[in-house]
Structures are given as C-alpha cells and as structure tokens.
Amino acid sequence: MNQFEWKTANAEETGHFAARLAELLQPGDVIALEGDLGAGKTTFTQGLAKGLDIQKTVNSPTFTIIKEYKGKLPLYHMDVYRVADSMEDLGFDEYFEGDGVSVVEWAHLIEDQLPGELLTIYLYREREDHRRLVLVPKGERYEQLCKEILA
User: Fold this and answer.
1) Pairing verdict, β 66-69 and 75-79
2) pTM
3) What is the Cα–Cα distance from 33 to 41, expressed in whole angstroms?
4) In sequence order, what are the residues at sequence separation of 6 or more whose Cβ sits closer than 8 angstroms to the Cβ of residue 81?
C-alpha cells in the first residue's frame, strides 16, 4: 500500500491543502482523520469546508458526533471519539454511501464500520504549527486522488 506525505508550516497551509483536496472530492468519498489532540483534524476539516464553499462555521462535533454542512457537496463531519461501542449502529453507512463527503475524526474507533475504500490522513505535529500529513489511500480512486493532489 502506498502512502504519500505533505508538510505544512502553519494552520493556514494545512487548511489550504485541505481546500485543494476538497476540489477533487466526489459524492460518497470518505476521509478518515487520525492524530493526537491538537494535531489539526478540525483545522483540516475547516479547510475542506472552505474548498466545498461551505459558509457556516465548522467546529468539532465532539458532543453531537455528526454535523452536516451544505456546500458544493454536503459535508458530513463526524467525531467518533466518544462512541463507546464501535458495534453500536449509528447509521454511519448511510452517510458513507450518501451524496456528500464524510470526514471521520478518530476513525480507528469505528474501523469495523468504515467502508473498504477510503483515504486516511494522519496528522503529526512536528513542532509548534508545523504538521506532517501522511495520506494512506485504500482503493484505486483514493490512490489517484493522492497522486493528483500531490502533483
């Protein structure tokens, strides 16, 4: 399995990268975000939202689990950190197979409910605002997406 890397020097660059990625996304795309607290998962999602022309303020859905936003494509922003039982049926598949883009923070906690093909992005804090983004595609669609965004 291939993986791709991109480095950013500040939150603005992280958001800009995500906005560029958003322009390539299609209905049904799923992005899993992994990283420690403060790694930039919500900042990344805010950049995606900007790239999808979403006007509402995007913030972490920690206590609501899923927030929906309307833009060029609907954005389904999920934070599954507080999901106690990964086998609990919360209807994630309806979002994953829907007409929008799903972004799942802490996706490893519901790994058994994730689709077989998706793009996982690991965000690592290198220092202060610097981030290293490691993109791990599962499936040909996401492999091509990574090649295109990093070209």
Assistant:
1) antiparallel
2) 0.91
3) 6
4) 62, 105, 106, 109
Task: Measure the CA–CA gap between 64 and 73, rounded to whole angstroms.
Answer: 21
Here the tokens at position 150 are 């990093």
Residue 87's SS3 state is: coil
Give tens-digit pLDDT for 66-116.
889 999 999 999 988 877 555 556 678 888 888 999 999 999 988 888 999
DSSP 137: E
Give the chain's radius of gyration (CA, Å).
Answer: 14
DSSP 84: S
- Owner of token pair 């509402």: 56
Tokens of 75: 């954005």
Beta-bridged to residue 76, according to DSSP, are: 68, 102
User: Could you give phi then psi for residue 48, rounded to 5 degrees?
Assistant: -60, -45
C-beta separation of 14 from 47 below 8 A: yes
Percent residues over pLDDT 70 in the chain: 93
Residue 58 burial (10 A CB sphere; 0-12, 13-18, 19+):
buried
Q: Are 32 and 133 in contact (CB under 8 A)?
A: no
| Helices and strands in the chain, H and E counts | 4, 7
| Residue 128, both tokens | 């202060």
